[in-house]
Amino acid sequence: MTGPGISVVICVYTEDRWEDILAAVSSVRAQSHPALETLLVVDHNPALRARLERAYEESDGVRVLANAGPRGLSAGRNTGIAASRGEVIAFLDDDAVAERDWLRRFTEGYADPRVLAVGGRTVPVWASGRRPAWFPEEFDWVVGCTYKGLPPGRVRVRNVLGGNASFRRAAFEAAGGFATGIGRDGDRRPLGCEETELCIRLGRARPDAVLLIDDRAVIHHRVPAPREHFAYFRGRTYAEGLSKALVARSVGAGKGLESERRYVTRVLPAGVARAVRDALLGRPGGAGRAGAIVAGLLSAAAGYALGSLRARRAAGTAFPPTPAQEPEPAREPAQAPPRAPLQAPPWTPAPGGLDE
């Protein structure tokens, strides 16, 4: 099957996920549509970088790079984009494995030249072996997975989800890279929305752009035991509210909350109704799921309110500032000539940071 050459970027940061990282790389190397290359971008962890370089020193098609920007997922992705050679750049989480046809499904989406991004479906793999009875499928985004309420099949969307997504290089040339300071940074507060902000920015730069999700492009994402607890659920939904406030500050509440309005007014009420019905029928977890949906919504709303307040206090700080150049990662002499540095707008948080 012919199609665009695809570079796969996997951002890594801790040796605690060593086996997961090896499994992620193995799943890429087993694709029915082979990847052009796999780039492992290490987030400011020299010991992990050295260990990965030893593990893959004799492996064709796998390169290990240091994050050339500030600590965090966004800068790591920007490093991978700048170092990659493919016409399409795909992103895979370091604790996920892709099904064999993952890249083939992405490739099919790019048959239409208007398509600048294709995402897929992410399935949770619970550490306990089963979904917690109280955990609503409508909130699977909390653990980085596809949530109930997204339309099935191959559909046009506002934004793809970052842990299972791909972009044409032309998308980054049009809109720049991921905004630093908004996405995850190791074990700090689990912020997100960096791919949402990028996709909205892309839509503004290229109004003709088509972004798709194909639910046949499947990856399986490990959910560690601590993330099965309500404390993580509450913290992650709160952090999502903070992130949405930053997105709204950047691109305006109209676009920044366009999909969220449908989610809040249609998806969540339907989820509560199903959960209450299950509770009335005596099915396990029904009451817990209803309560979790309400609690998750209130927690996200609280985060959004605080994030918006901080944004108003920082009204004198314009966003985005003049784009800064991300430094190029170091390259070995045998590698392809370096591309021009990627332009990526830094994210300027409100005073006080986001870790309170």
Model description:
Mean pLDDT is 86; it is low at 317-338 and 343-356. The chain has helices spanning 18-29, 46-55, 73-83, 102-109, 169-175, 194-205, 230-251, 253-256, 258-280, 286-313; strands spanning 6-12, 37-42, 62-66, 88-92, 96-98, 115-126, 154-156, 164-168, 210-223, 324-325, 343-344. Strands 1, 2, 3, 4, 5, 6, 7, 8 and 9 form a 9-stranded mixed beta sheet that branches. The chain has a two-stranded antiparallel ribbon with strand order 10-11. Strand 1, helix 1 and strand 2 form a beta-alpha-beta unit. The N and C termini lie far apart (50 Å). The protein has 356 residues and is α/β, with parallel strands linked by helices. The protein has 10 helices and 11 strands. It is globular and about 60 Å long.
Descriptors:
two-stranded antiparallel ribbon, 38% helix, nine-stranded mixed β-sheet, alpha/beta, 10 helices
The averaged pLDDT comes out at 86
**Global geometry:** globular
Number of strands: 11
Poorly predicted spans: 317-338, 343-356
Largest β sheet strand count, sense and barrel closure: 9 strands, mixed
Order of helices and strands: EHEHEHEEHEEEHHEHHHHEE
Tally of helical segments = 10
Structural class: alpha/beta
Helix content: 25-40%
> Strand-residue fraction?
15-25%
Q: What is the rounded distance between the termini?
A: 50 Å
Rg (C-alpha, Å): 20 Å
